[in-house]
Amino acid sequence: MDRIVECVPNFSEGRQPETVARLEEAIASVDGALVLDRHMDADHHRSVITFVASPEAAVEAAVRVVARAAELIDLRRHTGEHPRIGATDVLPFIPMRGVTMAECVALALTAGERIAGELGIPVYFYGYAARRADRVNLEDVRRRGFEQLRAEIETSPERAPDFGEARVHDSAGAIAVGARHLLVAYNINLRTDDLTVARRIARAVRGRDGGLRYLKAIGIELGGRGLVQVSMNLVRHEQTQLHHVYEAVRREAERWGVQIAGSEIVGLMPRAALQKSAEYFLQLENFAPELVLEDRIAAALAVRHEIKDADDVTETGGVAKDELDTDGGGLS
Amino acid sequence: MDRIVECVPNFSEGRQPETVARLEEAIASVDGALVLDRHMDADHHRSVITFVASPEAAVEAAVRVVARAAELIDLRRHTGEHPRIGATDVLPFIPMRGVTMAECVALALTAGERIAGELGIPVYFYGYAARRADRVNLEDVRRRGFEQLRAEIETSPERAPDFGEARVHDSAGAIAVGARHLLVAYNINLRTDDLTVARRIARAVRGRDGGLRYLKAIGIELGGRGLVQVSMNLVRHEQTQLHHVYEAVRREAERWGVQIAGSEIVGLMPRAALQKSAEYFLQLENFAPELVLEDRIAAALAVRHEIKDADDVTETGGVAKDELDTDGGGLS
To answer: Is residue B187 within 8 angstroms of chain A, CB to CB?
Structure first.
């Protein structure tokens, strides 16, 4: 696949594995859509499925899984701490490879139009797909939850959906459809049981309170281990980078005399984020993705295929000459 | 290519780009061999070409380029500081993907047999391909250079080649053919012009003098920048790891009151080395290659292809269930 969109629908069902498996099947039934990952959270009664697809397949797979969720999940019987407005609560489209944010906005709008028209579920657009300034933040769209929305949607113009009738779907509620950047979820564990410290550090490093611009952070307790955690989302990891986040937390922890016990990646991490961290900590002066052996092999294979496709076998000299200015692995 | 061998021949020609281009052509003329990189060093009058190939293609490409070098390079007219015994001086086979060291030894022996038999060049095996304990180290094989070898090979049993007649090829000399691990070349620049410091640090960190076992290191001056450098080879980067090397040099530099100005990768770096450095410095507790988004996509695509190959379209549920225990990118 040359052009890849990621899609990370969140569902209001985190306890029945059979239901989640049937949601995955709905996605995988579309040619060109690949389920990468799923996460069920029984406490929040919520699941997240990550899939990638070509732009065309992404909309079809999204609409199919939203339809399946509307059949299988009844929001009237759902409880859980996490705020939610729908059986499929959130449906973000994320540019991954060879796709722009503008295209993801267009995909979100197309999907939203079909969800409202074909399934009778009212649609709110958020993130880069938002049609109103007060709906850019997902939290603002779903803060008061399904029950409140059901009561207000028909009478309050402020709650009118962007697409569809001003009436929640009986069992499936409403849905927030959006376009956003890839989100990196990263947690740092601190060697203390003092929750105050984690909360202070979170406040010091996050963008909302003047810290790193594209970082969201909260302090939480880490039950079994007697530790606390700074739980974070990097909403634009190319701007607010992983290693800067680590160093900022480390510095703040030092101020409280606390050490970092470890960190964890939640979900999937783009390769570039890890490579940039290595580059940073190793103080590499000349890092470029072309220095990575596996990438060089892939590039050489791609050139060979192009050449074969062009039937131009006299040009099989490998990669372009101006890419060849680096050393061949040391004189040996 | 499922099975990949890397091959890094060194040639006694570092000044004529046309000659090196013709050597590259000889390699690329073999189907399944891909030139990744080349490096010419005019001072040492020496070049290094890095190519990858299937095991079968690797031997054929190696023999062809050794034959081409014997035509184009006349060692009798070659001068340069670097010790060398042949037009193609060194020819190592390196396991890269789906290939064992034992197989690379077999490839080295096959290539050596053909080079001796077809081209009349005497062959010395080194590294894992060595047939005698005193030839494991490449330095021991070529230390006294072509001129000395030419004088001694016919009379000294100690200098007898492993394959071929005890007589150097008139213009192409001899060749060292070997099997070894992938070598990572990594240099750290120090913010001082005191060469003594670089040399002391090199001695403190390298395996030969009791430091990190699989690390070779020397201290050198870095002409134009007024800096000195610890120039290093990690001969088994999975054992002696990049981040340990960086930290060892940093610590020793501190002891002399000197800071690290930067570092550089020479040639190509395996992806795993960078990822392990990121894991180390970020103190990641749960790192696994499966957490890297691009790798997960590649794995999902591979599963899909396997499924398609097996004509078993009822099983298109994406990756195996027991791989799916991680989060889907954070609740959003």
So the answer is: no
Secondary structure of residue B37 in the 3-state scheme: strand
User: Contact B331/A48, CB-based, under 8 Å?
Assistant: yes
- Tell me the C-alpha to C-alpha distance, in Å, between residue A8 and each of A25, A51, A95, A138, B252: 15, 6, 12, 14, 47
Closest CB to B329 among A8, A27, A294: A8
CB contact, 8 Å: A90 with chain B? yes
**Using a CB-CB distance cutoff of 8 angstroms, which residues of chain B are in contact with residue A14?**
none
- How far is Cα B103 from Cα B271, in angstroms, rounded to an integer? 23
pLDDT in tens, chain A (332 residues): 789 999 999 999 999 999 999 999 999 999 999 999 888 888 788 999 999 999 999 999 999 999 999 999 999 888 876 788 999 999 999 999 999 999 999 999 999 999 999 999 999 999 999 999 999 988 889 888 888 898 899 998 889 999 999 999 999 999 999 999 999 999 999 999 999 999 999 999 999 999 999 999 999 988 778 899 999 999 999 999 999 999 999 999 999 999 999 999 888 889 999 999 999 999 998 888 888 888 888 878 777 666 555 543 333 333 222 222 222 334 34
pTM beyond 0.90: the answer is no
The interface residues of chain B toward chain A in range 92-121, judged by CB-CB distance below 8 A, are: 92
Q: How far is residue B324 from each of residues A107, B67, B295, measured CA to CA in Å?
A: 27, 52, 14
Say if B243 is an interface residue toward chain A (CB within 8 Å).
yes
Contact B79/A at CB under 8 A: no
- As given in the structure block, the two tokens for residue B75 are 């060692």
Among B185, B294, B301, the residue with its CB nearest the CB of A330 is B185
Does A185 contact chain B (CB < 8 Å)? yes
- B188: helix, strand or coil: strand
Give the Cβ contact number of residue B323 at 10 Å. 15
Nearest by CB: B297 against A52, A189, A246: A52
Cβ B11 vs Cβ B88: under 8 Å: yes
Contact A145, A83 (CB under 8 A): yes
Are A215 and A241 in contact by the 8 Å Cβ rule? The answer is no
ipTM tops 0.90: no
Q: Is B44 a catalytic residue?
A: no
Could you tell me the two tokens for B143? 């230390």
In angstroms, the Cα distances linking B115 to A9, A220, B143 are 60, 66, 21
- Residue B169 is given by DSSP the state B
| Distance in Å, alpha carbon of A203 to nearest chain B alpha carbon | 20
